[in-house]
């Protein structure tokens, strides 16, 4: 009964009114025009942004392997504004991949590995030197743990203000980002620099422990990127 009502039949069979057709065509034309205008702009912007990082990668270091952060923990990152001192305690597991099989090469060798954490532009302590590694090709890669802890004095002034404001802003957002700079040589070649961004949930003080211990913020891992040589 209901299905045969005249209005239902009209809705399902009548073509759309010319006005709505015109509107649809107009919307489609506008979308096509804006896509045509924006596509070259987007491509140009992408080239401008990516060229400085892609060109050295493509031209100068075509075969090197980029390290990976398998996991990391942040136990302490706190700033004493009066002493302009940044206390830190964090650790990470670095992974270097063996890469695809290559004729005559059983493994990739990584030497002169060093890693240092940075917060708001401040290097936290000196870079830690790590033992050399061999990663089997087609294997799961080789991992090495590294830990950094101590108190980094920051010069009063701009650097100290940058640390204080970055920490306040990040604590409010619930995440603290520490950059780890890694340098390594591959298969006896030139040393390459990498930057890894570690993003930790803010560590929480344990309730009533009184020992100053905190539940660490855990970072699940992520890839590092090529970096311009300037750290350390
Ligand atoms: C850093 O944290 C670890 C784990 O809680 C602890 O064993 C170590 O003593 C701490 N290092 C410093 C310098 O506080």
From TrEMBL:
Span list, region Disordered: 1-22
Keywords annotated in UniProt: Membrane, Transmembrane, Transmembrane helix
Upper taxonomic lineage: Eukaryota, Viridiplantae, Streptophyta, Embryophyta, Tracheophyta
Protein name: Late embryogenesis abundant protein LEA-2 subgroup domain-containing protein
Organism, as annotated: Urochloa decumbens
Transmembrane regions listed in the UniProt entry: 27-51
């Amino acid at each position: 009964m209901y299905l045969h009502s005249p209005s239902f039949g009209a809705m399902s069979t009548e073509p759309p009114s010319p006005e709505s057709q015109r509107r649809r065509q107009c919307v489609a034309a506008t979308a096509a025009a804006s896509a045509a205008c924006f596509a070259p702009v987007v491509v140009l912007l992408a080239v401008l942004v990516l060229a400085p990082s892609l060109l050295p990668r493509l031209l100068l270091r075509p075969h090197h392997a980029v390290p990976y952060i398998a996991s990391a923990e942040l136990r302490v990152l706190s700033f004493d504004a009066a002493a302009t001192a940044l206390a830190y305690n964090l650790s990470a597991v670095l992974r270097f991949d063996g890469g695809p099989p290559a004729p005559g090469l059983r493994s990739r060798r990584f030497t002169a590995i060093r890693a240092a954490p940075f917060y708001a532009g401040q290097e936290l302590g000196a870079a830690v030197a790590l033992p050399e590694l061999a990663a089997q090709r087609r294997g799961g890669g080789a991992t090495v743990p590294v830990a950094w802890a101590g108190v980094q004095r920051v010069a009063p002034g701009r650097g100290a203000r940058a640390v204080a404001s970055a920490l306040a802003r990040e604590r409010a957002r619930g995440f603290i980002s520490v950059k780890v700079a890694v340098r390594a040589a591959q298969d006896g070649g030139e040393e390459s620099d990498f930057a890894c961004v570690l993003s930790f949930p803010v560590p929480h003080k344990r309730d009533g422990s009184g020992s100053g211990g905190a539940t660490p913020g855990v970072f699940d891992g992520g890839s590092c990127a090529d970096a311009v040589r300037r750290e350390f």
